[in-house]
Structure formats: C-alpha cells, structure tokens
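Problem 12. The chain below contains 578 residues. Write out its predicted structure in token notation.
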Amino acid sequence: MSIQTDPILLEVLKNGFEAIADEMALILMRTAHSPIVRDAMDYSTALCNARGETIAQGVTTPMHLGSFYDAMNFLVQHFAGDIHPGDVFIGNDPYLIQGQHLPDIYVIEPIFAEGEIQAWATTIAHHADVGGLVPGSNSIGATEIHQEGLRLPFLKLLDKGKENDTVMQIVAANVRVPDQVIGDLRAQMAAARAGRQGFEALLNRYGAAQISHYAEALQDQAEVFSRKAIEAIPDGTYSFVDHIDGLGEDPQPIELHLKLTVRGSEITADWTGTSPQVKGGINAPLSFCKSNVYAALRSIMPEEVPNCHGYTRPITVTAPPGTLVSCTYPAPCGARGITGYRIIDCIFGALAEALPDKIAADNTGGSTLPSFGGQVGGKPFVFSECVMGVWGATSQHDGQSGVPHMGSNQSNVPIEMIEADYPLRIERYGFVADTGGAGEFRGGVSIQREWRALAGDTYFGVRSDKVYHPPHGLFGGAEGKPAFTEIEAGHALRSIPPLATRAETLGEGDLVRHRMAGGGGYGDPLRRDPTRVAEDVLDGLVSPDAAREAYGVVLTEAGPDLAATEELRARLRAAATQ
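Solution.
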C-alpha cells in the first residue's frame, strides 16, 4: 500500500533528522580530546539513507558534507552482504575509499530495522596527527600521498559489536599523539552510536516503511526547491579565474578556471583549464571539489532548502583527471583545504555578474592552518589550529571580521586552552587597522595572531594564502591588504612563504607572526557614509589618514566635516578621471 505524504509530518521528520545530526555534532565536540576537533570544531556529522545519500547534516563543516555520498557509496558497494548490526567502519584514504585527505578519518555505523539497513550514522573528524613527514600531517612539501601518513581503506573498527583491537593498535603505533587520536576516534564512535539510537527511536515510533518514505520525500522536496533557486539565476555561462599563491620559496601561481553554466533549473561547474596537480599537498580529490561546489551554491539558496543530497541533483561538476581539483594517485592531498576554499571563491566570483546583490567581495582565502610540534619532557606534542577569518563586503553591509569562511564554519582555539596545554604563548590576537578593502561597504579587517615558542627545537609549518593575490573588491571596491607570515628569532626577521614546503625549526623564545589578508571592499569608497567612516576610526578599524586618503572624509573632534568632505571627494573624483 502506498503512503501518502503529509506535509506537516514531512516537516516534523525533517527537523527530527536534523536534530539527530546536531546531537551527534555536539556529542563529538564535547567528548573529543584534541583542540583541532574540540575547540576548532574541524569535524562533521550526518545521517545518510541506506544508499549513503545524506538525509541531514550537523552544524559543522560544509566543505566536508557534500563528499559523504562518494565515500558512502563506495562503502555500501564494497561491503555489500557483509554489513551487520554492531558494525562500525573506519577509513580515510582519498584513493582507496573516495575520502578527502588522510587526517580526515570517517567513523560510520549502520542502522538496521526489520533485518535491513535503513540508514547510516556518519562522522568525519580532522585528527591531530596521522603520521607522515611532519607533526600534524599537513605537509605542503609532500610529493606523494605515501609521505603523508597512515592510509586506511574502509575497515571494521567494530565487527558485530566486538572492537577490532588490531586496527586500534595500528593507528596508535603510526601517530605522534595516540592519546588524542584514539580519544577522538572514540568520540566519533560515541557520536555515531547516538545517531543510531536517535534514528532507531524514530523507526520505533513511525515504522521503517514510513521513515523510508519520508526520507525519500525529503530528497525530492530538496530537489524541487533547489531547482527553483537555480531558475532564479539568469541563464548564461559565467567564467572566473582565481589563483593560489604557489608552493615554496619561489612560488608560481596556480590557477583555477571555472565555467559555470546555468540552463533553466540545472547548473554545471566545469573546471577545464585548471592547473595540473602539483607535487605538494594542496591537491583536491574530485569528491572534495564537488562538495565545495555544493556548499557554495547551497549558500545562495533560500533557507528552507533541506540540507540533504536531493539539493545536489540539479548540479553537475566536471573536472579533468590529474588537475588540482580532480587529482589522481599518488598526488598528495594533506593540505587540500586551501583548494577547497578557492573552489568556493571561484563560484562566488563567477556569480558576481549574475547575482550582484547576493555575492560578497573576495575574502581572506579561508583559514590559515599553522602546525607546531616537538617534545616536552620526553613526550611528543602536536598543535594545529584553523585561524579564522575575514569576509569581503556585500551590497548591504561591511565584511565581517573574526568569523569563519562559509566553507568551514569552524572556530579559533581559545588562547587559554593553547597556553594551558602546549609550550606556546599567544603574544597578540586581534584586528589590524586599514587592512579591509575600502568601499561603500568596507571589507573585513585582518586578524593577526602571534605565537611564541616556549620550548626549543619546535617544528613550525603553515598553510596560508593571499600573499601575492590579495582579495579582490567588487564594483569599485578596493583590494584587501595581503597576508604575511614571519618568524622573529632574536634580532633577525625572516618571511615565510604562504605555502612553505620547507619545515621551520623554532628556538626557545622565537616568535611566529601571522596576519590574514583583509576582505575586499564593495562599491565606490567615496560613496561611503562619512559617519560610518568616523565610527571605524573610533573603533580602530580605519586610521585618520586612511579616512582621508581612501574615503575622502575630513574628520574633526566633533565628527566628520560634511562640507569639507564633499569638497575633498570632488577633488579625488576629478583626479581619478585625469
């Protein structure tokens, strides 16, 4: 007998699925051991249907979530006939299981009812270390994936409820900080178990047939809403070229080419022309490329579009194999996050012409990922964090500062947690004036973070960007100021390339100083409300000199002198046309 879809029950179950995914996310955060998971929140959770298609996503990392399906599809097919209640699976490899990069480990549990798989509780977390060339396993200098750490095909971490101690021992033996890694794996297991239990409660209340029906109806609803959102974009082909600064001491720009074609209710992202994959850890598997395209397009859709696999059905992503965004074995992928951020930025750049009121000017380029490692008292330590972040301005408001890139939704690790657990001291953490691109709406201002090493022989590596290609403005808005990283050792100061392939060794007392790029401005700076410029000066975001030179605003102790401002702006406009 067919089941009729009740729209009210559909909404109830949609929220029920999302609540379970969010509960999984909270449990994982609260039980994790490492700061990269517990504090930076570099992890994700989701519920998937029996085929591995996402039903609901937890409140964490968008760039993870769209790639669940490729890994899940592989798992479902590879273990067909050998999946049982009590099983829990683990895996991480981009080439063996359609994963993302080795630090991102999946822990996944099937959900059964009436003897059949009904759904999956899925988690992915960025682990503090998985071995490889450098502490933190984010080596820019790796030339093949075998140098990046422990590769795991999908294996049974639990087999019918019995823990596979061999797998746990192999993981512990291959990482620098086994207590944190094993602790985070157990946090993922707890989150997956909670997801299974929550979904089982829905199955017991509504029955497997009804839950399955409504899960499918949700996918269909998401597709309908997604198609309507795409139809609101003017038909056409929109192109954009963006850059990653390049690898090592003599960086050569790496290009991403996007051709975005909108036809009716469907959209295609074609990455033909993108640079070939490189001998450095920034290559992205195709599954990760697709995930970032999905995340970018979802962000411009209405809020009511369900965050499930169905909204991706009208979206096609193509990329030539062997390129930066569709790498092939044995290309290293450990620092592929920077490429994911740039994929999202390309989508926004291409759509700026079609949707000028929905697209922000360019941002800081995603998180900066510094890593530190060494030994204290004979015990290894590894510390990595995701430093966030700065947005470009929009047609409606200034760019935000101190918030994550929309692809990550992560957080800066609190200073107190760093200083309590690691031989590091934070010397500075705050905003920097005159770094946001000028515009009618100003770009977000840069964040500067400084770490002082309190132990000698400390490894330091960094993944950053936007040093040589600062964030662009839109429609007359100025560029944001570029990023930089430098090491101060005694009286010597040396610059570090944005994607350093050579590891740095810090002595006790050495200081690492990093400034993120500022966000791009939107619109003509000479149209900015003088009162807002004066407020920025009072807040320390714009200097008095920049107020005059970039915005044409004349300030007095009482506030902006409007008559003098109009006169100055007229002179600046006249000079610009000469």
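Discussion. The longest strand covers residues 116-126. Students who got a different answer should revisit the alignment rule from Section 12.3.
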